Automatic annotation (TrEMBL), chain A:
UniProt-annotated location(s): Endomembrane system; Membrane
GO molecular function, one term: NADH dehydrogenase (ubiquinone) activity
The NADH:quinone oxidoreductase/Mrp antiporter transmembrane domain, residue ranges: 135-421
Domain of life: Bacteria
Organism: Kordiimonas lacus
Record key words, sorted: Membrane, NAD, Translocase, Transmembrane, Transmembrane helix
Membrane topology listed for this record: Multi-pass membrane protein
Coiled-coil blocks: none
Gene Ontology BP annotations: ATP synthesis coupled electron transport; electron transport coupled proton transport
Protein name: NADH dehydrogenase subunit M
Short name of one Pfam family: Oxidored_q5_N
TrEMBL record, chain B:
Gene: nuoN
Name under which the protein is recorded: NADH-quinone oxidoreductase subunit N
Pfam families xrefs: Proton_antipo_M (PF00361)
Organism encoding this protein: Kordiimonas lacus
InterPro entries: NADH-Q_OxRdtase_suN/2, ND/Mrp_TM
GO terms under biological process: ATP synthesis coupled electron transport
Length: 509, 484
C-alpha cells in the first residue's frame, strides 16, 4: 500500500503505456476478434487509470496547499523526473482519467479502420496529458506538453474528416510555434536560477523587465493552447476535422492545458508581469467572448458551432484567472472542469447523430425530439449546462467568475456577462434547429434512438454535470487551499483590493 | 637518439587504418571486383579494430606527438568514435545497392577507409600542416566516391561539381593559412594561441586569414553561404555515398572547426563568434525555407543537413564549454537520425529501380508499417519534437546559446525549427494520410534493417529516458579537454 500511494501518479501514466504496448502485440487471424480485443484492452487500461484517479482524489488532503503524491528521481544533470499534484492540478488529472474510458467507448463502432493505431495513439495521449498536469519539473512539463502534439496530429490526420490534412498541419504548426517561444523562456529561467524545479522557480523573484519578456513568451504558448482570440483559428478546423474521440479530448483536456499553464507558471512565477499585462488578457478575452459567440450564431456546422463556443468559454476562464482573486480563479478552474465535461458531452452528442447520418450540417437535421426522445433530452440538458443554467455545472463556474470580476472591475464583469447572454442565444438557436421543429426528412425519421452503449456513455457525464451543479463543494474544496496560497504569496495587494467582496462571497458559500 | 623518434601510441589507430587500407588495396587488385564483399567485411573489421585501439590504448589523456603536430585528447576520442561509427554504417548499408547498380567495386570500401583516415587526422590536427593534409586526404577520397557511378551522368556531375568547388575552398583555406603564418609567424596551434592571447588588438592580417580559413571549413560542413554544392552532390551521388557524406565528414569537419577555433584562436573569440553566429543563422534559415519546396527526398535531406549544421553551430557560437558539449551531443544524435533516414531511403526501391520522390512514400504505413514508423521517428526527431532524441540536441545547443547571452540566436533557432517541422511532418503526412502507392521491393539486406532498427530505437521514446544521461556525461568529458 505504501508503494502504491508513493507511486500513484507514475502508475497512472504507466498503465496506459502498458496498455498500448499490449495492443501492439495483439494479433489474431480473425480481424474482427483482433479489433474487439484491442478495444477491450484499451477500455480496461483507461478504466484502471480512472480507478487510480479516484484513489488520488480520496487520498488528497484538501487542507494543504503543498504538492502531494510527490515522486522524484534524478535524471540528467539538474533535470529530474519530478511529479506531484496540488489543488489546481488534481481535479484536472481526474477529469482526464474520467474522460478517457468514455472516449474509448465512443469510438467503439465509429472507428473501423486502423483500430490498433487509433487506440495506441489515444493511450499514449492519455499518458502525456496526465504528465502535463502532474509534472513539477519544467523540462518534463515541456516534454509532455509538446509530445502530445504527435499523437494528436496523427489522430486528426488519419481518422479525421475530409479536410483533415489541412487541419492537422494547422494544429501542429500553430501549437508548435507558440511553444518554442516558451522553450526559450525556459532556457532563460534555467540559466538564471540553475534549476528546472517548478516549486523552486515559483519562489524565485525575477527582475521586473525580465518578467515581462518571460511572461510574454509563456503567453504565446498558452494563448495558442487555450485558445485565445486572435490565435484561436486552429481550433475550429481541428475540431471539425477530428474524429469524435479526438474532439472530446481536444475540448475536454487539451484546451485546459493553457489555463493550467497560466495558473502554474505565469501567475506564481511572474506576478508583477501578470498584473502588468492583465488588461491585455481582459481585452483579448472580452473580444473572444463577444466575437466568437457572434460567429457561433451563424455556423452551419454543429461541430464548428461548439468549437466557437469553446473559445468563448475559455475567454471566461482567462478572465477568471487574471482577476487574481479567490472567486475568479476558483471559478476559472471550475469552468475548466465543467467545460471539459459539457463540451466533451456535446461533441459526443454530435458524434451520435453523425454516426447515423454522416453529416454535421445543422439544416440536415430537425425534429429529433420526435423520434429520438432520449437523445433529445440528453442534448438539451448538456446545452443548458453549456449555457449555465442553475443546477448544472456551467452555472457555478460562470457565477464565481462574474462575482470575482465584479469585485475587480465592473466593466470587465460587464464584458464577461455579455458572453452569458450570447451563449444562451447561440445554444438555444442550435437546440431549436436540431432537436425541435418539424421532423420532415425521411432519413432523419429513420434514425434510431440511443443504443445501450451510447446511454452508458452519457449516464456518467449527466451525473457529473448535476453533481457539479448541485453540490459544487466536493470540487471546490480541493481547489481552495492552493488558490488561497497562490494569491497570498504572490498577489496579496491585489487580494486586499477585493477583500471585502471575496470574504462575503466565501461566507455565503 | 631515441628522443627523435616520435611516440607512436597516439597515432596507432591512424597507422592501422593506413596500413590496413594498403593491404586491402593489394588484395583487391589481385582478386578483382569479385572481392568486393570480402574487402567490405575486412574494412568493417579494420574500422572496429581501430575504434577498439582508440579506446583501450590511446585513451582520453591529452598527448602530443610528431613535434606537437598531432594531438589526441578526449575530444578527439569522442569525435573519432562518431566518425568511425558513421563509416562502418556506410559500408554496412552499401552492399546490396552497389551490387544492384553494378558498381560493387573493391575501391569503394577502401576509399571510405582513406576518407576516414583523413577525417581522423583532421580531428587530431594541432598544426595547419596536419590540418591540410588530413583535409585533402578526406576530400580527394570523397570526390572520387561522389563520382563512383561513373556511367551515370548525374553521378559524374556530382563528383565534378564537388571537386571544382572543393578545390576552390581548399584554395581559400590555404590562402587563409598563409596569411595567418605571415602575420603570426607560426602554424602551430599552441604557439598561435599563446602568441595571440596577450595582444591588445589582433592584427588585421590574422583576422582576415582566420576568416578565409573558416570559409574553407564552412564549405566542408556545407554551411551557408558555402552550401551550393550540397543539394547537387547529395542528389547525384549513389545513395550509400550520400549517407556517408551526410554523417561522418560533417562530424569531422565540425570537430576540426572547433579544434582550430579553440586550439589556435581562443583569444580571438570576439572576432570568430560573429562569423559563426552569421553562418549559423544563415544555415538555419536556408535549411528551413528552401527545403519547403523540395520534392526529391535526397535534396530535402541535403537542405535538412544544412539546417542541422546551423543548429550545431549554435553550440559553437556560444563559445563556452557547455556550448561544445551541446555541439557534441547534437552531432551524436544527428548521426543516428541521418543514418537511419538514409537507411530508409535505401529501402525505396521498386522493380524499375530506386525511387527518390517524396510522393513515392505515399501510404507507406499501409504497405510497410515498420518502415513507416521508423521514418516517422526519424522525422519527428529531426524536427526536434520532445519525446524523441532530436529534442535533446536542440535543448542543449539552445540552452548553451542562452547561457552565453545569445538569446536572439536561440529565438531564430527555435522559429526556424518550426518551419523545419513543416516539411518533416509533411513526409509523415504522405506516409500515413495519403493513399498507398505500390509497395517497395524488399531485399535490401539485413545490414540496412539493422541500421534502421537500431537508430530508430535510439531515437525513440524508449531510449529517450535512458541513453541521454551517459551521452551527456561522455560529451562533457570530451568537451573539457579543449583547454578551458
Amino acid at each position: 500500500m505504501e508503494f502504491f500511494s508513493n507511486n500513484l501518479l507514475s502508475l497512472m501514466m504507466i498503465i496506459p503505456l502498458l496498455g498500448s504496448a499490449l495492443i501492439l502485440i495483439i494479433r489474431h487471424q480473425d480481424k474482427e476478434i483482433e479489433k474487439r480485443n484491442i478495444r477491450q484492452v484499451a477500455l480496461l487500461a483507461t478504466i484502471s487509470t480512472f480507478i487510480l484517479s479516484i484513489f488520488l482524489w480520496v487520498g488528497f488532503d484538501n487542507s494543504s496547499a503543498d504538492f502531494q503524491f510527490e515522486e522524484r528521481y534524478s535524471w540528467v544533470g539538474d533535470i529530474s523526473y519530478y511529479v506531484g499534484v496540488d489543488g489546481i492540478s488534481m481535479l484536472l488529472v481526474v477529469l482526464t482519467a474520467f474522460l478517457m474510458p468514455i472516449v474509448i467507448l465512443s469510438s467503439w463502432e465509429s472507428i473501423e479502420t486502423r483500430v490498433k493505431e487509433y487506440m495506441i495513439a489515444l493511450l499514449l495521449l492519455e499518458t502525456l496529458m496526465i504528465g502535463v498536469f502532474t509534472a513539477l519539473d519544467i523540462f518534463l512539463f515541456y516534454v509532455f506538453f509538446e509530445g502530445g502534439l504527435i499523437p494528436m496530429y496523427l489522430l486528426i490526420g488519419v481518422w479525421g474528416g475530409l479536410n483533415r490534412i489541412y487541419a492537422a498541419f494547422k494544429f501542429f504548426l500553430y501549437t508548435l510555434l507558440g511553444s518554442v517561444l516558451m522553450l526559450v523562456a525556459v532556457f532563460y529561467m534555467y540559466v538564471e536560477t540553475g534549476t528546472t524545479d517548478i516549486p523552486m522557480l515559483m519562489n524565485h523573484e525575477f527582475a521586473a523587465d525580465v518578467q515581462n519578456w518571460l511572461w510574454l513568451a509563456f503567453f504565446a504558448s498558452f494563448a495558442v493552447k487555450m485558445p485565445m482570440w486572435p490565435v484561436h483559428t486552429w481550433l475550429p478546423d481541428a475540431h471539425v476535422q477530428a474524429p469524435t474521440g479526438g474532439s472530446v479530448i481536444l475540448a475536454g483536456v487539451l484546451l485546459k492545458m493553457g489555463g493550467y499553464g497560466f495558473l502554474r507558471f505565469s501567475l506564481p512565477m511572474f506576478p508583477d508581469a501578470t498584473e502588468h499585462f492583465a488588461w491585455l488578457v481582459f481585452a483579448l478575452s472580452i473580444i473572444a467572448i463577444v466575437y466568437t459567440s457572434l460567429v457561433a450564431l451563424v455556423q452551419e456546422d454543429i461541430k464548428k458551432l461548439i468549437a466557437y463556443s469553446s473559445v468563448a468559454h475559455m475567454g471566461f476562464v482567462t478572465i477568471g484567472i487574471f482577476i487574481l482573486n479567490t472567486n475568479g480563479i476558483e471559478g476559472a478552474i471550475f469552468t475548466m472542469l465543467s467545460h471539459g465535461i459539457v463540451s466533451g458531452a456535446l461533441f459526443l452528442c454530435v458524434g451520435v447523430i453523425y454516426d447515423r447520418l454522416h453529416t454535421r450540417e445543422i439544416s440536415r437535421y430537425g425534429g429529433l425530439s420526435v423520434n429520438m426522445k432520449i437523445y433529445a433530452t440528453t442534448f438539451v440538458i448538456f446545452s443548458m449546462a453549456s449555457v449555465g443554467l442553475p443546477g448544472t455545472s456551467g452555472f457555478i463556474g460562470e457565477f464565481l467568475v462574474l462575482n470575482g470580476a465584479y469585485a475587480y472591475n465592473s466593466w470587465v464583469a460587464f464584458g464577461a456577462a455579455t458572453g452569458v447572454v450570447l451563449g444562451a442565444a447561440y445554444m438555444l438557436y442550435l437546440v431549436r434547429r436540431l432537436v425541435f421543429g418539424e421532423l420532415d426528412k425521411d432519413d432523419v425519421k429513420a434514425m434510431p434512438d440511443l443504443t445501450l452503449r451510447e446511454k452508458l456513455i452519457f449516464l456518467p457525464l449527466l451525473i457529473v454535470v448535476f453533481w457539479m451543479g448541485i453540490y459544487p463543494n466536493s470540487f471546490l474544496e480541493p481547489i481552495h487551499a492552493s488558490v488561497e496560497n497562490l494569491i497570498q504569496t504572490d498577489f496579496s495587494s491585489a487580494a486586499e483590493h477585493a477583500e471585502g467582496v471575496t470574504t462575503s462571497a466565501a461566507a455565503a458559500r | 637518439m631515441t628522443g627523435d623518434i616520435p611516440s607512436l601510441v597516439p597515432v596507432m589507430p591512424e597507422i592501422m587504418l593506413a596500413i590496413g587500407a594498403m593491404v586491402l588495396l593489394m588484395l583487391g587488385v589481385f582478386q578483382g571486383d569479385k572481392s568486393y564483399g570480402q574487402v567490405s567485411n575486412l574494412s568493417i573489421l579494420l574500422l572496429v579494430a581501430a575504434a577498439t585501439v582508440l579506446v583501450t590504448k590511446v585513451g582520453g589523456e591529452r598527448q602530443l606527438t610528431f613535434g606537437g603536430m598531432f594531438v589526441t585528447d578526449s575530444f578527439a576520442v569522442f569525435t573519432k568514435i562518431l566518425v568511425l561509427t558513421g563509416s562502418v554504417i556506410a559500408i554496412l548499408m552499401s552492399g546490396n545497392f552497389m551490387k544492384q547498380h553494378k558498381i560493387a567495386k573493391f575501391e569503394y570500401p577502401i576509399l571510405i577507409l582513406m576518407a576516414t583516415l583523413g577525417m581522423m587526422v583532421m580531428i587530431s590536427s594541432n598544426n595547419m600542416m596536419t590540418l591540410y593534409v588530413g583535409l585533402e586526404l578526406q576530400s580527394l577520397s570523397l570526390y572520387v566516391l561522389a563520382a563512383m557511378n561513373r556511367d551515370r551522368t548525374r553521378s559524374t556531375e556530382a563528383g565534378l561539381k564537388y571537386f571544382v568547388l572543393g578545390a576552390l575552398s581548399s584554395g581559400m583555406l590555404l590562402y587563409g593559412v598563409s596569411l595567418v603564418y605571415g602575420f603570426a609567424g607560426t602554424v602551430d596551434f599552441d604557439l598561435l594561441a599563446s602568441s595571440l592571447k596577450g595582444q591588445e588588438s589582433t592584427s588585421m592580417g590574422v583576422v582576415v586569414g582566420m576568416v578565409f580559413l573558416m570559409a574553407g571549413l564552412a564549405f566542408k560542413i556545407s554551411a551557408v553561404p558555402f552550401h551550393m554544392w550540397t543539394p547537387d552532390v547529395y542528389e547525384g551521388s549513389p545513395t550509400p555515398v550520400t549517407a556517408f557524406f551526410a554523417a561522418a565528414p560533417k562530424v569531422a569537419a565540425l570537430a576540426l572547426l572547433v579544434r582550430v577555433l579553440f586550439g589556435a584562436f581562443p583569444g580571438m573569440i570576439q572576432e570568430w563568434q560573429q562569423v559563426i553566429v552569421f553562418i549559423s543563422v544563415a544555415s538555419m534559415l536556408v535549411g528551413a525555407f528552401i527545403a519547403l519546396v523540395q520534392t526529391n527526398i535526397k535534396r530535402l535531406m541535403a537542405y535538412s543537413s544544412i539546417g542541422h549544421v546551423g543548429y550545431a553551430l549554435v553550440g559553437l557560437a556560444a563559445g563556452t564549454q557547455a556550448g561544445i558539449e551541446a555541439l557534441l551531443i547534437y552531432l551524436a544524435i544527428y548521426l543516428t537520425m541521418t543514418l537511419g533516414t538514409f537507411g530508409a531511403i535505401l529501402c525505396m526501391r521498386r522493380s524499375n529501380g530506386m525511387v527518390e520522390d517524396i510522393s513515392d512514400l505515399s501510404g507507406l504505413s499501409q504497405s510497410n508499417l515498420p518502415l513507416a514508423i521508423g521514418i516517422a521517428i526519424f522525422m519527428f526527431s529531426l524536427a526536434g519534437i520532445p519525446l524523441l532524441a532530436g529534442f535533446w540536441g536542440k535543448w542543449y545547443v539552445f540552452l548553451a546559446a542562452v547561457e552565453a547571452g545569445l538569446v536572439p540566436l536561440a529565438i531564430v533557432g527555435v522559429l526556424t525549427s518550426v518551419v523545419g517541422a513543416f516539411y518533416y511532418i509533411r513526409i509523415i503526412k504522405v506516409m500515413f494520410f495519403d493513399d498507398p502507392a505500390p509497395a517497395f521491393e524488399g531485399g535490401q539486406g539485413n545490414g540496412i534493417s539493422f541500421v534502421i532498427g537500431v537508430s530508430a530505437l535510439i531515437n525513440s521514446p524508449v531510449s529517450y529516458f535512458i541513453l541521454i544521461a551517459p551521452l551527456v556525461s561522455a560529451a562533457g568529458w570530451a568537451a573539457q579537454s579543449l583547454l578551458f
